[in-house]
Amino acid sequence: MAAEQPIPVYTNLSDLYGSLGTSLNHAEKWNSVAEEFQRRFGRTPAYIARAPGRVNLIGEHIDYCLFGVLPAAIERDILIAIGRRPNALAEDAPGSVVAENMQKKYTRQVFAPAPRRRASVSEDEIRLEEWQLDINTKELRWESYVKAGYYGVLINYFSGGGNPAPVDILVTGTVPAGSGLSSSAAMVVGSTLAFLAINGKLDGNFTGNGPKISKSQLVEMAVANEKRVGVNSGGMDQAASVISVPSSALYISFFPELSASAVPLPPGAVFIIANSLVVSDKAVTAKRNYNLRVVETLVAARVLARHLELKVGNTERITLREVVGRLAGEVEEVGEMPVEWLLETLKRMEREIEHLKPPNSDISSEAQLGVTMEEMIAMSGLTAEEFQDVYLSWVEVEATHFQLYKRAKHVFSEASRVLQYRRVCLAAESSPSSSPMDVLKELGQLMDESQTSCNELFECSCPELNQLTQISKDAGAIGSRLTGAGWGGCTVSLVAEDNVDSFIEKVSATYGPYKGLQGEALDEVIFATKPSSGACVYKFD
Ligand code: GLA
């Protein structure tokens, strides 16, 4: 399976460019970062790590509920050139980093991790257990993502002793920040890879001398690393950035464990990304948006499990996917249950969610569907202390009403849409005789339904995204939806190959913030994308 393969390390540039499977001129970008590294630091880098952004075709906000999603890596990526600092000055702290970015607005940062020593075992035996690396989670800072990747390498590989190398790094990237294309995951994956490579840890498991690190191990590390920036995201972005393959989308499933398989996209389908130009940083708004949704879906899972009389430990944070599995009698050791069975159970869940509505209330409007903290605790069947411990002690959230019903309704229906989307793509491949336009229409409809659900039930859209998807539909998109966390960022539209130019022209002429943009400036905000390959490393001689 794709997830178990090792991270590709190239030593030959034509193999590297051939592997990317994209139409962009990668050579220019790779050369320029290597040359710039040479200019700034006086030597060639030892490695360049590449991690792409991703577009999610369908399956929004369901990865942390452990339901499968369908993203693809995009051609836009982050490159991190890294080199050991030679003749490190005596006063250089172990593992110190000089981090520069080719974008001028991101200024040079110098930092070093501090070993945190704690008495363990006995008074005289002081063991190095952890490293301290301050990460600012209150504001969007570019180096936070570099540090997040580095921190994971420190605690996984240097906690038992040994010193990380002092390094210089140079970062460049074409994934716009805060746009829903996973620039943050690409930065964290790229940084994790770069620090693994320079410290000689790519060839080995956590003990440093086992088999090569697999893609799924890198995903796991990158997910844990990104949580340090303050967002409890699922694993979609990191998995897409690491495991994707050219020309296909990737069905990523998280239950019973991470697995991924390529899903061929039907011929004639072009995916166009359009940036609403509303910047949404999920780390900054986490307590009212992203992290709140994570908590709402988790509590919804417990309330449903209780209502369905499923066995759940008091301290367990059961997810909606696990509720579905337990209800269906799925045996985890055997793997994920067959799709038809999963779809059936999801249908049943769409009826069961009635039990998430507020108790004893006369519901006449959607606004009244939320429950208060007290109601939510009572519905969970836990004591206030237990509830606090399990659901609130690890995360900060802010709300007067918690929308358990609406969130669960979105999650179950979106999970079904992902399975249907995948089924349509697989069927189109195995019976190419079906009308290509009918196939695209089926996919488009699922994308439109997803947008409505994200907007009305999950409330992760915004007026500009709604407007942009509508304009896209009017301009000929077969389906259009927000992609990524939402609350701003990009849309993805499915457009028939023949219509691409006229689509882009119409959207550019209609969406207010695009007026006056031309040439490169316009290509930056609205562009067709092709699925690209996942993360890799280039090693210099
Ligand atoms: C962000 C997160 C992902 C996922 C999406 C929403 O991109 O990082 O894990 O939850 O939002 O689908």
How would you describe this protein?
With 541 residues, this protein is α+β, with helices and mostly antiparallel strands. The chain has a domain of 252 residues: Ribosomal Protein S5, domain 2. It contains 16 helices and 15 strands. It has a seven-stranded mixed β-sheet with strand order 1-15-2-3-8-4-5, sandwiched between helices. Strands 12-13-11-14 form a four-stranded antiparallel β-sheet. A two-stranded antiparallel ribbon has the order 6-7. The two termini are 31 Å apart. About 1% of the residues have low confidence. Bound molecules: alpha-D-galactopyranose. It catalyses: alpha-D-galactose + ATP = alpha-D-galactose 1-phosphate + ADP + H(+). InterPro entries: Galactokinase (IPR000705), Galactokinase_CS (IPR019741), GalKase_N (IPR019539), GHMP_kinase_C_dom (IPR013750), GHMP_kinase_C_sf (IPR036554), GHMP_kinase_N_dom (IPR006204), GHMP_knse_ATP-bd_CS (IPR006203), Mevalonate/galactokinase (IPR006206). Its EC number is 2.7.1.6. It comes from Lentinula raphanica.
How would you concisely characterize the structure shown here?
The chain is α+β, with helices and mostly antiparallel strands and 541 residues long. It has 16 helices and 15 strands.
Fold blueprint:
Elements: E1 9-10, H1 13-20, H2 26-41, E2 47-58, E3 70-84, E4 97-101, E5 109-111, E6 114-119, E7 126-132, H3 142-157, E8 167-173, H4 183-198, H5 215-227, H6 236-243, E9 248-253, E10 259-264, E11 269-275, H7 290-307, H8 320-328, H9 339-352, H10 373-380, H11 384-392, H12 404-430, H13 436-456, H14 463-474, E12 479-482, E13 490-496, H15 500-510, H16 519-525, E14 526-529, E15 536-539
The protein binds alpha-D-galactopyranose (GLA).
